[in-house]
Design goal:
about 25% helix; alpha/beta; seven-stranded mixed sheet; Rossmann fold; globular; about 200 residues; 6 helices; about 30% strand
Length: about 200
């Protein structure tokens, strides 16, 4: 069973539908025992970092998330929340992954947010097994994680490279939306369901 963390951050039903298409039992929950007992945990997110962190604290989820030992996948904002700090509202995050979150440079990136399909390349983690280098995934974001030691795949926007995926121990994150990314996204979610840590 997969637990999908409920913290009122939107986009949960399309994520749940994507896992159900793969035959996975998935439960939307903010219950600590359910999250910690799950075979794996998914942390989706759409919206603002500051309000998301307020809701996470309100529900007492900070320490619960840090205690998860099973495969854990953060999606979009869920990936960013695993980092240390965000320029969005100067927000202190969960500090599970050693990276910060920054706003795209308006002097370089002519269109912010980045909305649409982009290539992902240079993958170095099992989430991308069987996915061709340079495959297309769907992105929708204004903030990004710079390249760092936890970078597990890269993307480029107006010539600017950033982390399309990050990984550290059992924690994985993707900046794109696999549930909206066609066959490549479906393969990534299927790979997540096979992960052993």
């Amino acid at each position: 069973m997969t637990a999908l963390i409920d913290y009122n951050a939107g986009n949960v039903f399309s994520v749940m539908a994507a896992f159900r298409r793969l035959g996975e039992e998935i439960v939307l929950t903010d219950d600590a025992r359910t999250i910690l007992a799950a075979d794996r945990v998914v942390f989706p997110g759409v919206g603002y970092a500051s309000s998301a962190m307020q809701e996470i604290k309100k529900r007492g989820l900070e320490d619960i998330i840090r205690q998860v030992k099973k495969p854990f996948l953060g999606i979009c904002l869920g990936m960013q929340l695993l980092c240390s700090h965000s320029e969005e509202g100067h927000t202190e995050m969960l500090s599970i992954l050693p990276a910060d979150v920054r706003l795209f440079d308006k002097g370089v990136c002519k269109k912010i947010p980045q909305i649409g399909w982009n290539r992902v390349y240079g993958a170095s983690c099992p989430l991308f097994e069987g996915i061709e280098d340079g495959s297309w995934f769907f992105f929708d974001h204004s903030y990004y994680v710079p390249l760092a030691g936890c970078t597990a795949a890269k993307a480029e926007y107006y010539g600017f490279e950033y982390s399309a995926a990050i990984a550290n121990d059992n924690f994985f994150g993707v900046q794109f939306h696999p549930e909206k990314s066609g066959s490549a996204g479906e393969r990534l979610l299927a790979n997540f369901l096979k992960l052993e840590v």
